[in-house]
Design a protein that fits this description.
Layout: H1 8-30, H2 37-56, H3 65-68, H4 70-91, H5 97-104, H6 107-118, H7 125-143, H8 147-151, H9 157-214
């Protein structure tokens, strides 16, 4: 149980991933006038392929499981590395990096919905709680603390492309991790949220006891 607590290493990893995604959007926006979106995605993953080839080139051998399951890996590549990133770069043609990053925060929502509808996967209440907190945070940032700004918010084509990209990434997550591993991931998220609540719950209980004794 202790291994599921939110320690410093876990916190750093949780923060680093969104920072890298945000950096991806910023770099793509800077290059939008120099490199077309589809070509940018091709160049990006071609570079990754060359960097990983010395380390994992053995997966290209004929006896590798890659070739026995090539339809599945082709679909995963199309949904995750191909469609998501291409749609992200296309979205940046009309939307801002901030909007694109915020819209992509809807991925957990689509992941939970796809799991519930298509995989009949039960979702823990703590997972919904964490998702609701995430959505509220996004709305606050979009509104900059002003309700009128949120009511007057309009979507540009890039935002809609990013919604489509988020749905495809959620589908990719289910196909990639599989039901068992993604379910475990949901449970881990719930435990992390629970671990964040425990200090406040303990503090509240101690305060209540102190008030009863003082009374």
């Amino acid at each position: 149980m202790s291994s599921q607590q939110l320690n410093l290493g876990t916190f750093v990893l949780l923060v680093t991933a969104p920072l890298l995604w945000a950096g991806n959007a910023l770099v793509a926006r800077l290059l939008q006038d120099l490199v077309p979106p589809v070509l940018l995605n091709l160049l990006r993953w071609s570079l990754v392929f060359l960097l990983l080839l010395p380390l994992a080139g053995w997966v290209l051998r004929r006896q590798s499981a890659l070739w026995r399951n090539w339809p599945r890996y082709m679909l995963l590549g199309f949904l995750g590395m191909g469609s998501y990133n291409t749609l992200l770069y296309l979205a940046l043609q009309t939307s801002s990096p901030i909007n694109v990053t915020l819209v992509s925060s809807s991925i957990p929502l689509f992941t939970l919905v796809i799991g519930r509808v298509f995989y009949r996967q039960a979702v823990a209440s703590l997972s919904w709680l964490g998702l609701a907190a995430s959505i509220v945070g996004v709305l606050v940032v979009l509104a900059r603390g002003e309700i009128d700004r949120l009511l007057g918010l309009t979507l540009v084509p890039g935002d809609l492309l990013m919604v489509l990209a988020s749905i495809l990434w959620a589908w990719y997550s289910w196909l990639d991790l599989g039901r068992e591993r993604l379910t475990a991931k949901f449970k881990t998220t719930g435990r992390l949220i629970s671990s964040l609540r425990q200090p406040w719950a303990c503090s509240g209980a101690q305060s209540s006891r102190a008030l009863r004794h003082s009374g």
